[in-house]
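Support request, please re-run this one:
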Amino acid sequence: MPALPPVTEETLESFSKSELLEIILKQFSLIETLREENLELRVRIIKLEEQVAKLSKNSSTSSKPPSSDIVKPEKHKSEGSGKPGGQPGHSGRTRKPFGPDIVDEIKQYALVACPECQTTLSVQDQTEPWIQQVAEIPEKLIPI
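Re-run finished. Output below.
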């Protein structure tokens, strides 16, 4: 909008009646446009204030449940916590092997070729054997 020149009594007296009426009508039109814009902006401000109020509430500042928090607050780890699993220096605990009297079947497997490319493995490629025990729990049939 261009800046309007200062209006004084002398400048208004220099206009004719029809020019003054035209100026007044333009001003009324401008006032109505500004009122509409003002109303739109007020409605927008109210909506934005509601959004800000809604977003600023979380489970620690209102009676909302923690599951309704948009961004979860950071959990502070204690200084003593480390990576999951056995920590360095901790003696491992494993299950005792089954006795030969309760083992039903023993299978030995030897890998002689690569499962991907079928290349024969040399003695140097082979690793130390290890024992893996698998226990199957039989289904008990209980009459009901």
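The chain has a mean pLDDT of 82. Residues 9 and 85 are 89 Å apart (CA to CA).
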